[in-house]
Specification:
Blueprint (H helix, E strand, L loop, with lengths): L4 E11 L7 E6 L21 E4 H8 L3 H4 L3 E5 L7 H13 L4 E5 L9 H8 L4 E5 L5 H8 L4 H12 L3 E8 L7 H11 L5 E8 L5 H7 L13 H12 L1
Parallel strand pairs: 2-4, 4-5, 5-6, 6-7, 7-8
Antiparallel strand pairs: 1-2, 1-3
Helix pairs in contact: 1-3, 3-4, 7-9
Length: 240
């Protein structure tokens, strides 16, 4: 059987914000979207990064078993679903070891034509952290370059598969924080059966320096984090 290799950007050995508990985080290389606030533009190109087999990643993660035994492993990106076959194999190996697995994704690559492949992945996945960039199709396209149709279909697919969901939403002033959009997002989330948590993530500009190093223009240059009252408002709308 031919080995499957994953293109990996980096590892984080003590992650505390990408799922429950302390987690070993695998950042996959490659993403089709160009979110205007993306803080990891260095993960966009799939051909970059370093190649690993799933077994090699497991060996790296198990160095930190004492830390992650009550947390787990999260595969993020980039967009990990670009390398779904590799992630499926990786999660299968972690499942054999009793390690909790989480997928941090935008769901943008989902296709009903390949639903069986996604089902195989979800069968070895304990939790999906789904980042819904914008509930409005037109606004989503302006923000990311893509329609949100596949994102919303993937959310339904995960829910119907019985896999736990955490919904994440980046709050950007004047872009994603309008109450009418937040209420629409709330209505959509209410149709999902397995949502365990909703996270509002205030926009930050910490990735801006990466754009400078890469010689890429930053679309949100000068954008400030949302005021605390707008963050509280979003949390209230989405979670109460």
């Amino acid at each position: 059987m031919e080995k499957i290799y994953g293109n990996i950007h980096s590892f984080e050995s003590f992650g505390t914000v990408d799922g429950p508990g302390i987690r070993f985080v695998v950042f996959m290389q490659g993403c089709p979207m160009r979110c205007r606030y993306c803080h990891n533009p260095d993960t966009w190109q799939i051909v970059a990064g370093k190649k690993y087999t799933a077994s090699e990643v497991v060996a790296e993660a198990m160095k930190y078993k004492s830390y992650i035994k009550n947390g787990g492993v999260t595969v993020s990106g980039g967009e990990p679903l670009l390398q779904a076959e590799f992630v499926t194999e990786l999660f299968g190996l972690f499942k054999e070891k009793g390690i909790h697995t989480a997928l941090d994704t935008s769901g943008i690559t989902f296709s009903e034509a390949n639903a069986e492949n996604y089902k195989k992945l979800l069968n070895v996945c304990n939790l999906v952290l789904l980042d819904i960039k914008h509930i409005d199709e037109k606004e989503h396209r302006q923000l990311t370059g893509f329609s949100n149709e596949s994102v919303l279909k993937f959310a339904k697919f995960v829910s119907d598969s019985g896999v736990d969901l955490w919904i994440r939403h980046v709050l950007v002033s004047g872009v994603t924080d309008d109450d009418k959009y937040l209420y629409r997002l709330k209505d959509f989330i209410s149709t999902l059966k397995t949502v365990k948590k909703i996270e509002v993530l205030p926009y930050h500009s910490m990735g801006e320096v990466k754009y400078e190093k890469l010689g890429i223009g930053y679309a949100f240059k000068g954008m400030q984090p949302p005021p605390e009252e707008r963050v509280k408002n979003a949390i209230k709308i989405l979670t109460l």
